[in-house]
Specification:
The protein is α/β, with parallel strands linked by helices. It has helices spanning 17-26, 38-57, 63-71, 96-109, 125-129, 163-175, 191-207, 213-224, 230-237, 239-252, 263-270, 321-332, 354-358, 375-382, 414-426, 442-458, 464-475, 481-488, 490-503, 513-520; strands spanning 7-11, 30-35, 73-77, 87-90, 115-118, 138-143, 152-157, 179-184, 313-317, 336-340, 364-367, 388-394, 403-408, 430-434. The protein binds nicotinamide-adenine-dinucleotide.
Length: 537
């Protein structure tokens, strides 16, 4: 029978610790909550109160249960209060020296049979464990943010963790209403190893001025249905924590450039812009700890387009179903469409060209094509590149997609971008604007993440089922990477990833050999009856 953990200590009551206290106390476990000093303790207590009050206000927690929850928590300064706990979980900042010192101290204070757990996101649990005299009883217990909401806990066993400790801790996860996934001690475990490359790339896009913070976030939230955009998520995680996680993953994960922290991230941390917890990160909040944006931080994206007329006649350049879909959506919205077959990317079109003559009278030219081909190739062939934008409908066929990427080339005029955004508003779609690079925003951020997941599978670190579960339960994604790959089509994914890698030939972006092999073998996903999984019927 699994061991019962009756009293648990939680050390550090910041972004994660306060939530972890709530999870235990909500599920009938007595908690001793510890901080470094009185001020930090008050802040931790306030975090817990705010979170449980919110749960009551939303009808997710009974007032009586909230009171019982609080009655189970004892607050204290210093580790001496942990003399009688069965399990201690540390959630102090992501620094190896700090965590090693703390675990050594916990080893001295806690009873001999107690299990010591670290909530580290990326550090070596083994290195933390060997700072104690009981490495067999040290384990990684990686909760996800916000801990009361996210159902995943990664349970990290080192080479010396006793099997019964891992078993007992996994059983505890079940008692907390969570799903414990067992993993070994590798930088970033499952979820962060896949999440942080993507988050870092989003910072790079913003830093390069490729797209605005709102557009980057909207592309992932509305285009791919993620619970929040990457920059909003970074603000929630805490930029200092994110920076430390990236640093460790870069060092421990073989110096993959995807994990080399974007210079902007470091600058923001140095400047004290840590995200929600400090009141300012990529966005500005009403107060430290608040999730509400400050009134003057709200950019009137939609308002900027109000009042400008939408283009009445639009040239749609492209061949195939994407162009037909786009033309249909425009026509249904009352726009006159002049359809022109893709002139084949021939630069330097002359006035005698058919495409140039066909497009002479339109207000705006849109290139409707896949996210693998540069818009500028087609724009030059139209003879009027200043009026040309790419329109990329994200998240399904044009009729269903909620989000449109408006792609500006190096020749597109600001007027054409405004007209295209206005057109999207008239179509009832959210528009985001970006530069002319493979994958634009949404696919450029999504595909490398999917490719990373294939590499993880290839390395036998985890299974497709556990990786899918980790991303759904730990990050709230609507589908896991392998479910998504089977739906999108492995050949489509490979084509986009190949285009991204061609443009930026970094080893970390090279298509995973397993993806290539499956495509070669004709396993393309759902439509062929099998991809990463078999699909009957
Ligand atoms: P945080 O900065 O929000 O909170 C850390 C807390 O630890 C602070 O309140 C600080 O006062 C306290 N602390 C520092 N030294 C202490 C000590 N010696 N004794 C007691 N308390 C001490 O950090 P966080 O984001 O909650 O991260 C904590 C850990 O959780 C890190 O290892 C991080 O990688 C991990 N984690 C973070 C997230 C996230 O989204 N932020 C998600 C999963 C895991």
């Amino acid at each position: 029978m699994a061991r019962e953990f009756k009293t648990v200590g939680v050390v550090g009551l910041g972004t994660m610790g306060a939530g972890i206290v709530e999870v235990f106390a909500r599920n009938g476990v007595d908690v001793v909550a510890v901080e470094v000093d009185g001020a930090a303790l008050d802040k931790g207590r306030a975090n817990l109160t705010a979170s449980t009050d919110r749960a009551v206000a939303r009808g997710k927690l009974d007032p009586a249960d909230r009171d019982a929850l609080h009655a189970r928590v004892t607050f204290a300064v210093g580790l001496d209060a942990l003399r009688d706990v069965d399990l201690a979980v540390e959630a102090v900042p992501e620094r190896l020296d700090l965590k090693r010192r703390l675990l050594a101290e916990l080893d001295r204070v806690c009873p001999p049979g107690a299990v010591l757990a670290t909530n580290t996101s990326s550090l070596s649990v083994t290195e933390i464990a060997v700072a104690t005299e009981r490495p067999g009883q040290v384990i990684g217990l990686h909760f996800f943010n916000p801990a009361p909401v996210m159902r995943l806990i990664e349970v990290i066993s080192t080479v010396v963790t006793a099997p019964e400790v891992a078993r007992d801790v996994r059983a505890l996860c079940g008692r907390l209403g969570k799903v414990g996934v067992s993993v070994t001690d590798r930088a970033g475990f499952i979820a962060n190893a896949l999440l942080f490359g993507y988050l870092n790339q989003a910072i790079g896009m913003y830093e390069a001025g490729y797209a605005s913070r709102e557009d980057i976030d909207a592309a992932m939230q509305q285009g791919h249905g993620l619970p929040m955009g990457p920059l909003t998520l970074l603000d929630l995680i805490g930029l200092d924590t994110a920076y430390q996680v990236l640093e460790t993953m870069y060092q421990r994960g073989g110096h993959d450039r995807r994990h080399a922290a974007a210079p902007l991230l470091r600058q923001m941390v140095t400047a004290g812009l840590l995200g929600r917890k400090s009141g300012q990160g990529f966005y500005t909040y009403q107060a430290p700890g608040s999730s509400r944006l400050a009134p003057d931080d709200l950019t009137p994206v939609a308002g900027a387009e109000a009042g400008e007329p939408a283009p009445r006649t639009v040239g749609v350049v492209g061949s195939g179903t994407v162009a037909t879909d786009v033309a249909e959506v425009l026509t249904a919205a009352g726009v006159d469409v002049v359809a022109v077959a893709d002139p084949g990317g021939v630069p330097a079109a002359g006035p005698g060209d058919q495409a140039v003559r066909d497009l002479a009278a339109v207000d705006l030219v849109v290139v409707a094509g896949p996210s693998t081909a540069p818009v500028i190739d087609v724009a030059m062939a139209t003879g009027r590149p200043a009026d040309v934008v790419g329109l990329h409908f994200v998240g399904g066929p044009a009729a269903q997609a909620r989000l449109v990427e408006v792609v500006r080339t190096v020749r597109t005029s600001p007027t054409a971008v405004r007209a295209a955004r206005q057109l999207c508003a008239a179509l009832g779609r959210t528009a985001v604007t970006c530069g002319d690079r493979a994958g634009f925003i949404a696919d450029a951020l999504l595909l490398p993440y999917l490719n990373d997941a294939v590499r993880m599978l290839e390395s036998n670190y985890s299974t497709a089922d556990d990786i899918d579960a980790a991303m759904k339960l730990g990050c709230g994604y609507p589908a896991g990477p392998f479910e998504l790959l089977d739906t999108v089509g492995l050949d489509v994914a490979l084509a986009i990833q190949t285009a991204i890698h061609r443009e930026l030939p970094e080893p970390g972006l090279a298509p995973a050999p397993l993806l290539r092999n499956l495509v070669t073998a004709g396993r393309l996903g759902r439509r062929t009856g099998g991809g990463f999984r078999d699909h009957a019927g």
